[in-house]
Amino acid sequence: MEVVVAKTAGFCFGVKRAVDTVYEQIETGKAVHTYGPIVHNGEVVKDLEEKGVKVIENRQELEQMDRESIQPNNGTVIIRAHGVSEEVYQLLEEKKLECIDATCPFVKKIHRIVQRHSKEGCHIVIIGNGAHPEVEGIRGWAQAPVTVVETQEQAQNFVAKEGEKLCIVAQTTFNYKKFQDLVEIFEKKGYDIIVANTICNATKERQEEALELAAKADVMIVIGGTHSSNTRKLYELCKSRCESTYYIQTLADLKLDLPNSVELVGITAGASTPNKIIEEVQNYVRINF
Question: Would you name the residues annotated as active-site residues?
Answer without folding.
Answer: 134
